[in-house]
Amino acid sequence: MVAQENQDKKTWMVSLVSTVFILGIFAVACLFLVNIGVQVYRNVVVANQNNFELRTSLSYVATKVRQADQADCVQIKQMDGVDILVLTEEDGSEQYETYIYYYDGWLYEHFMEKGDWFEPGYGMETFEIDAFSMEETEDGVFHFTARNRSGDIEELTMVLHSR
Distance between alpha carbon 130 and the CA centroid of its chain, in Å? Predict the structure, then answer.
């Protein structure tokens, strides 16, 4: 009878250890899968954020250009080695300029009276992107290119109605 009890205890102990071992493997597998899911989710969120910044920066520039689309109110200048999209507007007798430019990883907007002092890095940071370029062709077509940190590139070509 004592041998039978020892045998029952051993069987019970083996069953308990086996059950705990199987539950432990299940828990580790669950944690592993959750970790993989978190990494995938994080990558998707980062990619979406980068693409949002990229597309929205060009949409923002397009909207600003369309708002300023009047004769001789949209041009590209270079100051201190920085290409600047200059949007001119009048309010009564006052003239104002909006400078949109890329500097130090940011797309900036700077609104001021025409002819005021300007220095790169001055103004409001609007979008954090990796690169931004702009050019105006001989026939008045504007071409904008933006690149995000992931290396994705978007381009925008605009023809002004006022030209």
Answer: 9
pLDDT in tens, 118-151: 888 889 999 999 999 999 988 889 999 999 888 8
Residue type for 83, please?
Answer: D
pTM, entire model:
0.73
Spatial separation of the C-alpha atoms in residues 57 and 145, rounded to whole Å = 10
Of residues 47, 27, 45, 25, the one with CA closest to residue 37 = 45
CA 80, 81, 84, 88 torsion-angle sign: positive
Which residue is it, tokens 């992107």? 129
- Going from N- to C-terminal start, the domains of the chain cover 1-163
H, E, C per residue of 101-132:
EEECCEEEEEEEECCCCCCCCCCEEEEECCEE
DSSP sequence for 55-94: HHHHHHHHHHHHHT-STT-EEEEEETTEEEEEEEEEETTE
State the DSSP code for 161: T
CA angle, 142 as apex, 140 and 145 as ends, to 5°?
Answer: 160
